[in-house]
Amino acid sequence: MSGGWTVLCPTSDVLPGESHVAWFGDVPLVIVNFDGIFYALEDRCTHEDFELSAGPYDQATGQIECVLHGALFDVRSGEALRAPAYEPARPYPVKVEDGMIWVREPD
């Protein structure tokens, strides 16, 4: 850990249009590569506490869908875009250094 930042994985683990699950302490995060920019969300649908990583990630729109009931989230902000989820998924700040993806606790 460096200044509150924790390394999760190399950027090579998350190619453009892909998602990857990594652990930040005891919190699973789904990491996505949206047009070369990396985003991290808590890997949990806010509707039913189901893994977002189990659903499809749409590279064209930057959205991830929960396969349990079809809730949709924006990977850039965590915003819930479609019911039955109304609360956002928790986004985590991301930085990339030396080919590694780092995250820290949200403010």
TrEMBL record:
Q: Give yes or no: UniProt keyword Secreted.
A: no
Going by the entry's taxonomy, the superkingdom of the source organism is recorded as Bacteria
One MF term from GO for this chain?
A: metal ion binding
> Would the keyword Amino-acid biosynthesis turn up in this protein's UniProt record?
no
State the UniProt keywords alphabetically: 2Fe-2S, Iron, Iron-sulfur, Metal-binding
| Location of the Rieske domain | 6-103
Recorded hits in InterPro entries, A to Z, give: Rieske_2Fe-2S, Rieske_2Fe-2S_sf
Q: Which SUPFAM superfamilies match?
A: ISP domain (SSF50022)
Pfam family name, one: Rieske
- PANTHER family xref list: 3-PHENYLPROPIONATE_CINNAMIC ACID DIOXYGENASE FERREDOXIN SUBUNIT, FERREDOXIN-RELATED
Could you tell me what this protein is called? Non-heme iron oxygenase ferredoxin subunit
Q: Specify the species.
A: Denitratimonas tolerans
